[in-house]
Specification:
- The chain is α/β, with parallel strands linked by helices and about 180 residues long.
- It is about 40% helix and about 15% strand.
- The protein contains seven helices and six strands; from the N terminus they run αβαββααβββααα.
- Strands 1-2-3-4-5-6 form a six-stranded mixed β-sheet, with helices on both faces.
- The radius of gyration is 16 Å and the shape is globular.
- The chain starts with a helix and ends with a helix.
């Protein structure tokens, strides 16, 4: 079923919550599709020991939070760039975005790192913010946006998403443009 659905796609954005919907065979189909593949895995109480981004043998873009990266690497202390380097080689992936909450994001494009500070001044709720960042930055990366701009856009989207309670609303294009305009004044 997955193979039939991705046939005409330019890009695949895969948000894997670790509930078992994406089996090993399904992940293999996604990775072998030849399409641009953006992947995110999220840990939760039900999958914390079994679910990791490195379960994907290939991706064109990975978006994870720092905790998920560290869990996958089983490493609490090394620099993020070192952890990404090892995972990038294992996954044959050149582009990684690591969200770091109040510390902003680190984006790695072919080994070169870009740090972008957090833009949120207050956090109402973090639920769904990583999903919003994945959705928007995946299209940015797939379209070839420069790395420093990908990091900036990630923080713009994240700053807006943490102002939304739960999934009650979504980040809009107009709000995004206004937010960027305010930042540039």
């Amino acid at each position: 079923m997955i193979a039939a659905r991705i046939g005409g796609a330019d890009a695949i954005v895969c948000s894997d919550f670790g509930h078992g919907l994406l089996t090993g065979d399904a992940k293999q189909i996604l990775c072998e599709s030849g399409r641009f593949l953006a992947v995110n895995t999220q840990i939760n109480a039900a999958n914390i020991r079994f679910h990791a981004i490195s379960n994907y043998p290939r991706a064109d873009y990975v978006c994870v939070n720092e905790g998920e990266l560290r869990l996958d690497a089983r490493n609490r202390h090394n620099e993020i760039g070192q952890l990404v380097g090892g995972l990038a080689e294992k996954m044959r992936c050149d582009r990684f975005l690591v969200t770091q909450g109040h510390a902003g994001v680190s984006y790695f494009d072919r080994g070169t790192g870009y740090q972008s500070p957090a833009l949120a001044t207050a956090v109402l709720d973090r639920i769904g913010s990583g999903d919003a960042v994945l959705a928007i930055t995946s299209t940015c990366v797939a379209s070839g946006m420069p790395a420093d701009m990908v990091a900036f856009v990630a923080n713009v989207i994240g700053a807006q998403a943490v102002q939304i309670m739960g999934n009650r609303d979504f980040v809009t294009r107009v709000a995004t443009y206004k937010f960027i305009e305010t930042l540039l004044k």
